[in-house]
């Protein structure tokens, strides 16, 4: 089997293959990742039966962890969206903060809603809110739209149970530290949101938006048909609280079988999904079954991309990459900070090349997985920072080949040029800030 610099070149070639197949030839990421598995396995001269076995092991391994989490998380998201629960949360935050603090308020709305709801659908759902607030408060609609978009984007890449961070954690073996990842992701989100609010306010002032006919605007949501704020918040916050509290209790040395059980991410998010189905009832003419079927449809594409990323990671683990990197690391030619920078750059290149943050996180974490034992990272904070650096890279940057870029442009009324010089710029700042925070925390606490 090939090793040494030639192996690194072949791994690089497999990444370039993924980028070309997805970005240039518009092939689905699942097929691109599977093709890369075979390409890498054959070119490094891996025994042919081992290629398939490695792919199966990687595919099944990641699905055994992330599969149910993604489905249950999608159930919460769909029920919040369809019932009007997400809009209820948004309206309540605006009412609490007041119209004078509309930019921080709508940023917070985005950050909260994007934990269970994908940022694309979250922006479509809430973009009408930005239009109404702009008219009521005399605030720039572009500033509000940018603040909403970047608020959604922040937690989309940093805070589980969003699929990207969940997949990255599963790939690198950090599933046992999900609570730490959530807590640290939330801590990182605060300064990131503050910076994006300032930039959104400053840049958005000079942007003129077009009027958009938004079918999901807040005016078309009948308040009487929405669930109560309590019913909307419980399915969203309870799983996060259970996971976080489980991490804290284990950290202080308390062992309780039942609490360990309900704070397991799969069980906690399942509880949230069941509560969502009980509290967020369909309107007349719709059924719980239909909403559940839609949640399964939403989770499908995420699951197959993530599983294919696991297959790619399985092939990588079967190469001699770990042994080669072990020699490199023990020679003193690199350190942990350099590895963090490398992880960030790989995720950023993948994001910029093929558009999907989730795909970038899946592929980057698959590349990192074989190196974890070599690097000697074994603490919760090390795993959490690895996931957050991947997330930071995966938000750098959103531009013309990212579906979210076009959602923001079309539903905010900003031209593609204005979206590029505002939203794209801010996403670059977001990613670099996450990298800076990660390195700072690593230096101080690891």
From TrEMBL:
It comes from the Bacteria. The chain crosses the membrane at residues 6-23, 30-48, 60-81, 102-126, 177-199, 232-252, 258-280, 292-316, 336-353, 383-401, 422-445. InterPro entries: Glcn_transporter. Pfam families: GntP_permease (PF02447). Signal peptide: none annotated. Keywords: Membrane, Transmembrane, Transmembrane helix. This is GntP family permease.
């Amino acid at each position: 089997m090939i090793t040494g610099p030639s192996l690194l070149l072949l791994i690089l070639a497999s990444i370039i293959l993924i980028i070309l197949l997805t970005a240039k030839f518009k092939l689905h990421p699942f097929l691109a990742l599977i093709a890369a598995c075979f390409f890498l396995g054959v070119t490094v001269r891996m025994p042919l039966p081992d290629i398939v076995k490695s792919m199966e092991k990687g595919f099944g391994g990641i699905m055994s962890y992330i599969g149910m989490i993604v489905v249950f998380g999608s159930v919460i998201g769909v029920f919040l969206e369809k019932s009007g629960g997400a809009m209820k949360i948004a309206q309540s935050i605006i009412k609490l903060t007041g119209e004078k603090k509309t930019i921080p308020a709508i940023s917070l709305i985005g950050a909260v809603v994007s934990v269970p709801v994908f940022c694309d659908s979250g922006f479509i759902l809430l973009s009408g809110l930005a239009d109404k607030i702009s008219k009521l408060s005399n605030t720039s609609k572009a500033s509000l739209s940018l603040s909403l978009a970047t608020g959604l984007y922040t937690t989309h890449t940093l805070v589980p149970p969003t699929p990207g961070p969940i997949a990255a954690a599963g790939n690198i073996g950090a599933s046992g530290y999900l609570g730490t990842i959530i807590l640290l992701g939330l801590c990182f989100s605060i300064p990131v949101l503050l910076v994006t609010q300032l930039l959104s306010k400053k840049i958005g002032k000079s942007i003129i938006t077009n009027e958009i006919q938004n079918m999901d605007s807040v005016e078309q949501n009948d308040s009487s048909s929405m669930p109560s704020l309590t019913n909307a918040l419980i399915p969203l916050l309870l799983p996060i609280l259970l996971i976080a509290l489980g991490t804290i209790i284990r950290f202080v040395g308390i062992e309780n079988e039942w609490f360990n059980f309900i704070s397991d991410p799969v069980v906690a998010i399942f509880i949230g999904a069941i509560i969502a189905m009980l509290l967020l009832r369909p309107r007349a003419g719709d059924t719980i079954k239909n909403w559940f079927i839609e949640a399964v449809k939403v989770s499908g594409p995420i699951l197959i991309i993530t599983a294919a990323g696991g297959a790619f990671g399985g092939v990588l683990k079967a190469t001699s990459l770990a042994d080669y990197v072990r020699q490199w690391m023990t020679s003193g030619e690199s350190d942990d900070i350099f590895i963090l920078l490398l992880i960030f750059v790989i995720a950023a290149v993948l994001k910029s090349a093929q558009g999907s943050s989730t795909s970038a996180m899946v592929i980057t974490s698959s590349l990192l997985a074989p190196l974890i034992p070599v690097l000697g990272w074994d603490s919760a904070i090390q795993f959490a920072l690895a996931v957050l650096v991947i997330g930071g890279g995966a938000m750098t940057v959103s531009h013309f080949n990212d579906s979210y870029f076009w959602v923001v442009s079309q539903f905010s009324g900003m031209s593609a040029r204005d979206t590029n010089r505002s939203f794209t710029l801010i996403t670059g700042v977001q990613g670099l800030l996450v990298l800076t925070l990660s390195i700072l925390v690593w230096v101080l606490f690891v």
